[in-house]
Amino acid sequence: MTESSFSRIYEIVQRIPKGKVATYGQVALLAGNPRWSRVVGYALHVNPNPGSIPCHRVVNRFGEVSRAFVFGGENMQRILLTEEGVAFLADGKIDLKLYLWKNEELSKK
Asked: Which of 13, 55, 80, 81 is catalytic?
């Protein structure tokens, strides 16, 4: 992947509002290639600026957080999302019907 691919991914992730989440696939689609879900994961893993690129707002398609969140340990992603008002279901997943970011660009694709 090129640096511009990662830059586009970071640009998308920066637009996810507090209290909302996006899936890896959603970010991939908005970044220009719906098959980039794993690329999104890698880009977030090497996030150069976690203070301004909120990678904790990206979850898998089932609403699950990463088991090994790279910035701060296993439970840090859940803690950060909870602090932003995202609630978790009893099974540990996020209710995507409530918290999934509804981006206008997706409805055009």
From this structure: 55
Q: What is the pLDDT of residues 13-47, one digit of tens each?
A: 999 999 999 999 999 999 999 999 999 999 998 99
- State the fold for domain 3-103: Arc Repressor Mutant, subunit A (1.10.10)
Total length of the chain: 109
Buried b (16+ CB within 10 A) or exposed e, 14-49: eebeeebbbbbebbbbbbeeeebbebbbebbeebee
Rounded CA-CA distance 91/93 in Å is: 6
Which amino acid, 19? Answer: G
pTM as predicted:
0.90
Phi, psi of 103 (to 5 degrees): -90, 130
For residue 100, the cross-strand partners are 21
Helix axes 37-45, 3-14, angle to 10 degrees: 90
The percent of residues in the chain predicted with pLDDT above 70, rounded, is 90
Residue 91 among the catalytic residues: no
